Amino acid sequence: MPTKLKQAHSNWVEGEYFWGREHELELAARKIKEGAHMLITAQRRMGKTSLMRELARKLSNEGEFYCFYIDLEGSSSAADAIAKLSASTRAHQPVWGKVKGAFANALSFFKDQLESLSIADVEIALRAGITNNDWQDKGDKLFEILANTDKKTLILLDEVPVMISRMLRGIDGTITPESRAQTDTFLTWLRANCQKHVRRVHLILTGSIGLEPVLRQGQLSATINHLEAFGLEPWDTATASSCLQALGRQYGIDFAPGTLDSIVDHLGSCIPHHVQLFFARLEDRCMRSKSTQVTLADVEHAYKEGMLGNAGHAELSHYEERLRLALTKDDYTLALDMLTEAAVTRSLSPAALEYFRRDEAARNPSPENQRQVLERQRNLIWILEHDGYLKRKGEGYVFISKLLRDWWKARHGGFYTQVSKRSGQ
Fold this sequence. Notes:
Layout: H1 22-33, E1 38-41, H2 48-62, E2 65-71, H3 78-88, H4 93-102, H5 104-107, H6 119-128, H7 135-147, E3 152-158, H8 160-169, H9 177-196, E4 201-205, H10 211-217, E5 228-231, H11 237-251, E6 254-255, H12 259-267, H13 272-289, E7 293-294, H14 296-307, H15 310-316, H16 318-326, H17 329-345, H18 350-361, H19 367-386, E8 390-393, E9 396-399, H20 402-412
Parallel strand pairs: 1-4, 1-5, 2-3, 3-4, 6-7
Antiparallel strand pairs: 8-9
C-alpha cells in the first residue's frame, strides 16, 4: 500500500485512493475469472461500490473483460435497467457498435448526432424504444451481444435492492400480486441469462440496503440462488490505523500517543467511510487551531462536535433513510423504537422485545395476530442484523457501531422513554 493517501470526501474510490481491500480485490477477481456470479453483502459505507469500481478497473486493464458498471438507484423497472446497461456499452466501441444495431429503430432519430450525445441522453433514447411488452426480447438480444464479443463481459449492478424495492412495493409501499409477478419475472429472466451465458457474461450485484431482506418480503429469495455471497467486513484496527497515518502523512498531521487507539475505540467498528470521516473532522480542527498534531482532546472534541453534530448528521442520516426504503411503514416505526431502545439502554433486551410484542398484539388480541407479531419481530431483528445495525450479545442485541449507536441516541433519544421506565413495567 502507498505511504500517503488523499481523502475520498465521501466518494467511491479507485486507483491510488483505493485502500485496505487488496485481499478482497484479488479474491473477487479470482472468483469472477472462475465463472462466479456474486452478491456483495455488507453494511452501509463499507466500500462495496469502491470494490466494484476497482475490480472493473483491474479486469479492464488486464484485457480479459469488458466491464460495465450501472447504478440502478433511479430505476424502477426492468426496461429502465436494460436501457442503462445498453447505454453503458458506449464506453467500449466494439460492443457499442453491435448494440446500436440492435436498437437501430429507437436510435434512428438521433442517427447523425448519436456520438455527440451524453450517456444520459443516449439512455433516454434507448428507454423510449423499450416497452413493458418487449423488454425481455430486447434484453435477450443485449445479453447475446455481450456474450459474443472478443472478450468476456462483467456487469456490475449497484443499488439493485433500491430498484427491486420500488418494483415490488410500488409508490404506496404495498406488495400486490402484479408487482410480485413483475419482480419475479425480471429476476428470473436475469438468472436465466446468467446461466445461459455462463463463463461469458458475469454478474455482480450490490446495494446500500440488503437485497435478501427486500426479496423475503415478496417470498422471492430463490430468484438469487445463483449468486455467491461475497461479504465485506469492517477494517481491523491495524488497517484503520494505517489509513489514518497515511492520511496524516498526506496532510502533514501526526498523531500523539494513544490517539489512534482512541479513534478506533470511539468508532467501535472500523467502517472505512467512518474512519475517513473522523480524519476529516480532525484535520479541520487542526487547521482551525493551526496545529499539526492530533491530541486525545482533539479526538474527543471531533467526535462529539463533528461526528455527532450537525455535520455528522448529514453523513449518518442515510442509515435511517435506507431503512425506510427496506421496510413497510408499520415495520419502520417498530424498527425505530427497537433501535432507539438499543441506543438509549445500550442493549435491546428480551424484556424490551417482549414489551414491544405485547404492545403490538394488544391492538388485535386474536391468536393469529399473536403469531404474526412474533414472526414480524423476528424478521425485523434479522433485517437489522443483516444490514449491520445490530448484533447478538448475550440474550439481547447491541449496536455494532458505537458511532451509529451514539448518533442514533442523539437523534432519537431525547423524547424517548425506555421500556423499563414505562408504566406497567
